[in-house]
């Protein structure tokens, strides 16, 4: 494959929006994205929504990939990374479809990747502004933060954040291998273990407006156990940098 | 050993029926031979055990288990664990393959529709 992206002007950026029944929130997100600075393409991964998510994307003239069966957040996001890989994007930015993430931070995330970071995570807990999640969730996030610091030596203040930008290396990594559910903390460890540079940037998140979070109180215990084991496994996994290319 | 005649006869008939049932499933392509091999072996061993119950006692002696029934349970539980684990491995492999297929299909479909749209304009 030809690669003529050596000059900084032709850097291609993709915004990946995983969406499952997000028809209430998407129109607002689209208008915020149009207002946001920067040159980027947008792709919505419609994870077999039962509402009119797909129609809303088409009406707004936003490209949408609709999965024929529901794959869960991990499978949907990975589809976006595969799209980014096949279409030779240099930077991919993942942003939730539920309106929690404000697109105005996109130019800063892009800048961080251009500065040589491989993964940049939008963190709520650097300046502690905006929606800070519930007390119990903050305890959980602190715990994952501590576990990741223990295993990799790097402090990540918001490992559960789904607002993140990736370089080409990480796009390749994620296109090949991405966890099925609750992927965020685990993938941070995978990237760190591959000796790639991870940084965080302060962002302000909003409380969810419509729909409901994928993590309910009933699933809380399963979530903690599953992610703990996933982080431990990721920390003893071998380097997985993509063989292709 | 004093196994009652009716119990023994019904065990023999049951195990033979089980064997015939499995062979028939394979013949009508409802079971993949690869996955059915273990079931053929299992049903054959049921036939052997019901026709020659001495084999169970022999196995118990070799395993140094006092009660023959316990030796039988031990063997069967071990076999079942192995089979369930093999199934978990198979399911995981299928899940990974299905995920990849769904993703590639969705991407291809989106690209196809995009091409269709531009060619109509």
Description:
The complex is a heterodimer of chains A (245) and B (121). The radius of gyration of chain A is 17 Å and the shape is globular. In chain A, strand 2, helix 2 (53-59) and strand 3 form a beta-alpha-beta unit. The longest helix of chain A is centred in the middle third of the chain and has 18 residues, at 135-152. Chain A contains eight helices and seven strands. Mean pLDDT of chain A is 88; it is low at 1-7. Chain A is α/β, with parallel strands linked by helices and 245 residues long. Chain A has a seven-stranded mixed beta sheet, sandwiched between helices. In chain A, helix 5 runs parallel beside helix 7 (184-193). Chain B has 121 residues and is mainly α. Chain B has one domain. Chain B has four helices and no strands. The longest helix of chain B has 53 residues, at 68-120. The termini of chain B are far apart. Chain A binds chain B through residues 45, 63-69, 71, 75, 78-79, 82-83, 86, 180, and chain B through 95, 98-99, 102-107, 109-110, 114.
